[in-house]
Amino acid sequence: MQARLVSSHDLAPDVRHFEFEIADRGDFPFTPGQFVSIKEQVAGKEVTRAYSIASAPNGNRFALCLNRVPEGLVSPLLFDMSVGEQVEVQQPLGYFTLRQSGHPAVFVATGTGVAPVRSILLTALPQGAPITLIFGARYPHGILYREEWEQMAKEYGHFRFLPTVTRPDESWKGSVGRVQGLLDDVLAGHAPEKPDVYICGMKEMVDDVRALLKQKGFDRKQIVYEKYD
Q1: Which alpha helices (H) appear in 162-202, and where do they start and end?
Q2: Which of 40, 43, 92, 167 has the maximum number of C-beta atoms within 10 A of its C-beta?
Q3: Under DSSP, is residue 152 helix (H, G, I), strand (E, B) or coil?
């Protein structure tokens, strides 16, 4: 099926939010947290890349959030698209989705790994379950959708947004360090009940957080993850 670019805007250097609509269709159903695959012809060969959906279900529209990878085969083409141009997409797939609606949950994300988290939270927060988002970036300007998360934290008393950066500047007043450094306090706040934990980002972070959770006695069914490399 064909997806038409409706709009796009930069979130950070070489990171962009894209809004698409499915051409000639009034509906595009998916489960928050899933991904779509985009097909492109590159040097005469068909290339497919998967990108997490960064929006809640909304008619025939969906959003993506991705990095421009200079040596990549598909992301530079997407960054060069103009409004109205189309790409071929496949049906949404994936299992990085909410397991227990209404159950306390902790989300741990870095970089564009926050894309499927945004999709889930836009849907889940109005339902009232206690949710914490630990979001890590190198620099303060890399905290994607920061104003949106801060507004959600004001609007929903059951939502906590905990950003942390590893390379702060003079203006940064928040937490410094990796996401793992915030995990103990967050989990202690849920004791004795164990929340479901959702992890999305690069392999090293995901594997490290999974190992920490297993050390703390979390069952594998309580740990949902997706790796971006």
Answers
A1: 180-188
A2: 92
A3: helix
**Residue 96: φ, ψ to 5°:** -85, 75
End-to-end CA separation in angstroms for the chain = 26
Domain with CATH 2.40.30.10 in the chain: 2-89
Q: Which helix (H) or strand (E) holds 148?
A: helix 146-155
User: Tens digit of pLDDT for each residue in 167-213?
Assistant: 999 889 999 999 999 998 999 888 778 899 999 999 999 999 999 99
Q: Rg of the chain's alpha carbons, rounded to an integer?
A: 18
CATH code of the region 2-89: 2.40.30.10
Q: Which two tokens stand for residue 64?
A: 């993506």
In what helix (H) or strand (E) does residue 120 lie, and over which residues does it extend? helix 114-124
Q: What is the DSSP string of 55-84?
A: S--BTTEEEEEEE--TT-SSHHHHHT--TT
Rounded Cα distance between 116 and 52, Å, is 6
CATH architecture of structural domain 105-227: 3-Layer(aba) Sandwich (3.40)
Could you report the per-residue pLDDT of 81-137, keeping only the tens digit for each? 999 999 999 999 999 999 988 889 999 999 999 999 999 999 999 988 899 999 999
